[in-house]
Amino acid sequence: SDHKLEYPLSPAHMDWSSHYPAFVDSDPTKTTLSGARKLTKDVEVVDIGCGFGGLMIGLAPLLPDTLMVGMEIRTSVLEYLSSRIHALRSQQQRLKNRADQPASEQPQPETAEAAAPVHDDLVGTTQIYPGNFENITAIRSNTMKFLPNFFGRHQLSKIFICFPDPHFKARKHKARIVSESLNTEYAFVLRPGGLLYTITDVEEYHYWVLKHFLNQPEDGTPPPSSKDLFERVSDEELEADPCVRVMKFETEESKKVTRNNGKKFVAVFRRKADPEWP
Ligand code: SAM
């Protein structure tokens, strides 16, 4: 439960150094408020309720210089994803070492276990990917409670919410991770021009998303536009965005929906500039 969740006092206290060792600043005097080593750049992309991490693994080579984090509430799922990322990084390292050395000098694993692939991702892969998966990580968190502890105002360029748990019953709607109050938090951590991606196979949830992001009253009257912090991104723009393809086909849930010939409803919103104060 939540009392076991670890979270920083503020974004300036967060220790990311063990998550992104390849991005730790070489100057050891640069430290966070908690005394941890700083990174050379900020985390910019968040996958909310990332599950087994297919989205980030698909995005990692597409955005190799962008730091991304998946947040997941279930311990066992998080553990699986962390070991999956660790295994991908080690495999990339082995492939790089092999490419750098003549065959006779290549390091041999000490045990059969060390040589065996840990996850399906690794079987037969010989490709060296841009970024070597050093730019992705996962954290156990309840994003409904702790998002602003991890990210400062305007820090993020993209947020993904892929196949959120539908919580069908009306009395369970308060557990949905799209809501008026949570959307205000998403707007706070997203920079103006930043994008919030959503996808669901539940049509009714898609309309819920549209209603809550566009502040669109159900009776069809125009929304009070000054309050509105998001605008919907057009289909033409989405067709040119490779992140949308990853979201539609590479998350574990999207693969399940594809197998079952289910429908997928995509909606992406751009964070508008902050309204001017009168
Ligand atoms: N996004 C993944 C995908 O597309 O394959 C997983 C989708 S799964 C249906 C929803 C995930 O959100 C689950 O793994 C669940 O544990 C996680 N989740 C639900 N509420 C959460 C919360 N408040 N904070 C973090 N993760 C949450």
What does this structure look like?
- The protein is of the alpha/beta class.
- It is 31% helix and 16% strand.
- The protein has nine helices and seven strands.
- The chain has helices at 54-59, 75-100, 112-115, 143-150, 180-189, 203-214, 235-239, 242-249, 252-259; strands at 43-48, 67-72, 136-140, 156-162, 190-200, 230-232, 265-271.
- The termini are far apart.
- The mean pLDDT is 89.
- S-adenosylmethionine (SAM) binds next to strand 2, helix 4 and helix 9.
Name the overall outline. Answer: globular
Radius of gyration: 20 Å
Helix residue percentage: 25-40%
Going across the biggest sheet, name each strand in turn. 3-2-1-4-5-7-6
Terminal Cα separation, in Å?
Answer: 43 Å
Record field, number of beta strands: 7
In brief:
With 278 residues, the protein is α/β, with parallel strands linked by helices.
Write the layout of secondary structure elements.
Layout lengths: L42 E6 L5 H6 L7 E6 L2 H26 L11 H4 L20 E5 L2 H8 L5 E7 L17 H10 E11 L2 H12 L15 E3 L2 H5 L2 H8 L2 H8 L5 E7 L7
Parallel strand pairs: 1-2, 1-4, 2-3, 4-5
Antiparallel strand pairs: 5-7, 6-7
